[in-house]
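User: Run a structure prediction on this.
Assistant: Running it now.
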Amino acid sequence: MELNRYSPGGKLPSSRALVERYRVSPVTVSRAFAQLAAEGLVVTRPGAGAFRAQARTTTTPAGDTSWQEVALSADAATELVPRSVDASGVLVSLTEPPPEVIEFTGGYLHPSLQPEQALAAALSRAARRPGAWGRPPMEGLTELRSWFARSIGGSVTAAEVLIAAGGQSALTIALRALASPGAPVLVESPTYPGMLAIARAAGLRPVPVPVDADGVRPELLADAFRATGARVFVCQPLFQNPTGAVLAPERRGEVLRIAREAGAFVVEDDFVRRLVHADAGELPRPLAAEDADGVVVHVCSLTKATSPSFRVCALAARGPVLERLRAIQVVDTFFVPRPLQEAALELVGSAAWPRHLRSISTDLKTRRDTMTTALARRLPELALPHVPSGGYHLWLRLPDGSGGGEAALTAAALRAGVAITPGRPYFSAEPPAGHVRLSFAAVAGVGEIAEGVRRLRAACDEAL
């Protein structure tokens, strides 16, 4: 190790010398020094250079944190529904596997699909906007709220839109605003694990309502409202996660009518509208565009179509609930940073934005077709009941009586060099069968998809 060549307190070579010696960029050297300083191995002195840190001669005794077990569980006995913070279902799609493992778990576009140049240009232009580094309106920039209102459609106005820091934050705000701890909340089954985590962390009781190829089943939704007295239903009517289902035209009005008669809200998570595939045809409008009575609280984000770090989202509602949503948003985060909002305006107003959407539409269809073809050829025993025309993943059912099931297959797949997502976290109650979810958006290209399915074949031979 280069650092071991120097005595404690010894001066290290300059950044320029290291750049020339190792033929790396100045940025790489700067980051290396920053990492070493953060680890306490290097001390930097402005104007003097960098020095190896003095050896630590004393060891700080470990503290005793056992008291926290009592403190954190003290309220559990008095809570109607104990709050549990379980991020495991979300971390599956956020944690990067080792470099040699093919990532079929990712929930975001691969860097090669992200509009990095357009984002960089938007950020650069945004930084030069007058007042770009000042405090934005609490609700968000008016121009950005207007853009989101137009994209939602119907009679939605800018005054009915709040800017939030990503879809997860917006869903958290919505559930806190609409349901009290201990209350039931109706959810699709299966559904997005991150939403289940939000509900449980807030002390809510997720109640499943089954989804089929045409979305949530209205008759079962009505039964669930009557049986539970719930006042909230959370759904993804377009390219539902994980099934990819689109709510059928004849069910859309039914869902709104049933919720209205129950005196309940529908939280519409419109998370991948901009990840439509090239063969999808015309998309249905958001439910919010067809709702005049304030039943729908609408969530839509730019994140999925851009970058995981570009966390700009709209939260739309009408009526008294809007003020409650706004109050929670202000208390939680004050506002979304203005430079990020200005960059969003620059991005969606640029000629690069529609080009990017067309490009990923074509790329996602190609990736989906590659994966479905490979699965049909190599893994016909994994049932694929629905091929989606939007989104970034496939939902597969394992054969009945399949050995160790999801857990065994997930572990075997990782040993074979491919990371997959087990289906159990997508169900709020007992699942009807074993499932896995495979993402085709986070890999480098179609070659990795084909190789990943080949590795999955080996894992299935071992585990099922």
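The chain is about 40% helix and 15% strand.
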